[in-house]
């Protein structure tokens, strides 16, 4: 059975508009593959633990996967390994990812578990799979009306590529702090999602 992993980093939880868009993407997948299993991680409601000294020591000592310090990391890594589709719904906090998502990343990126090193570079150990990142922000950070930098997009792209996931698409919900801009952004995001060949309505119509 195929599965989709939905990671929601919004402090608004299921009320987040980015999460709502993520659920639309999930529903589109279900319209073509009804047996898909949905796995959700709400990082604000169940925030990953801060990185501990025991975890850091286990990394340095190259401890076995079964070590107690790796339990949380293994849970998140198994989520990613087991999914056929990955969806991340996240706000932009201070130009980049929120703290809860950064902790999730720190547990998922693990040397000799999700990436290895070759010639001094990190190389992913996981198989590629379609990934969709939906970014919500109160201001404008992308396009001609951008008023702040976007460090989130290149960072998350590099993070996912590091573990082997390079098929990544982004949808932006910008200007959500202003009603007029929010309405336009939601309409634009709906169009982008509908046209996405994997997560959108195009795949449903084509049956692919």
From TrEMBL:
What Gene Ontology molecular function terms does this protein carry?
A: electron transfer activity; FMN binding; oxidoreductase activity, acting on NAD(P)H as acceptor; oxidoreductase activity, acting on NAD(P)H, quinone or similar compound as acceptor
Question: Its Enzyme Commission number?
Answer: 1.6.5.-, 1.7.1.17
Tell me the domain of life.
Answer: Bacteria
- Flavodoxin-like fold domain span: 3-194
Assigned keywords, A-Z:
Flavoprotein, FMN, NAD, Oxidoreductase
* InterPro entries on file: Flavodoxin_fold, Flavoprotein-like_sf, FMN-dep_NADH:Q_OxRdtase_AzoR1, NADH:quinone_OxRdtase_FMN_depd
Tell me one Pfam family matched here: Flavodoxin_2
Catalysed reaction(s) here are:
N,N-dimethyl-1,4-phenylenediamine + anthranilate + 2 NAD(+) = 2-(4-dimethylaminophenyl)diazenylbenzoate + 2 NADH + 2 H(+); 2 a quinone + NADH + H(+) = 2 a 1,4-benzosemiquinone + NAD(+)
Required cofactor(s)? FMN
Give the cofactor note: Binds 1 FMN per subunit.
Self-association and partners? Homodimer.
Q: Which family does it belong to?
A: Belongs to the azoreductase type 1 family.
Q: What's the protein name?
A: FMN dependent NADH:quinone oxidoreductase
The source organism is Rhizobium lusitanum
From which lineage does this chain's organism come? Bacteria, Pseudomonadati, Pseudomonadota, Alphaproteobacteria, Hyphomicrobiales
> Its gene?
azoR
């Amino acid at each position: 059975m195929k599965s989709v992993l939905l990671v929601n980093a919004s402090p608004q939880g299921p009320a987040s508009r980015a999460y709502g868009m993520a659920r639309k993407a999930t529903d589109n997948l279900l319209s073509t593959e009804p047996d898909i299993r949905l796995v959700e991680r709400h990082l604000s409601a169940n925030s990953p633990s801060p990185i501990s000294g025991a975890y850091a020591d286990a990394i340095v000592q190259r401890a076995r996967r079964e070590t107690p310090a790796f339990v949380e990391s293994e849970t998140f890594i198994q989520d990613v390994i087991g999914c056929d589709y990955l969806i991340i719904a996240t706000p932009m906090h201070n130009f980049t990812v929120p703290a809860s998502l950064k902790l999730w990343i720190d547990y998922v990126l693990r040397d000799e578990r999700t990436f290895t090193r070759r010639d001094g570079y990190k190389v992913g150990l996981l198989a590629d799979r379609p990934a969709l990142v939906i970014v919500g922000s109160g201001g404008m950070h992308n396009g001609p009306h951008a008023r702040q930098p976007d460090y989130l997009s290149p960072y998350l792209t590099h993070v996912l590529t590091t573990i082997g996931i390079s098929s990544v698409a982004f949808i932006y919900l910008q200007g959500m702090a202003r009603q007029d801009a929010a309405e336009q952004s939601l309409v634009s995001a709906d169009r982008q999602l509908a046209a996405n060949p994997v997560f959108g309505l195009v795949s449903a119509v084509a049956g692919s």
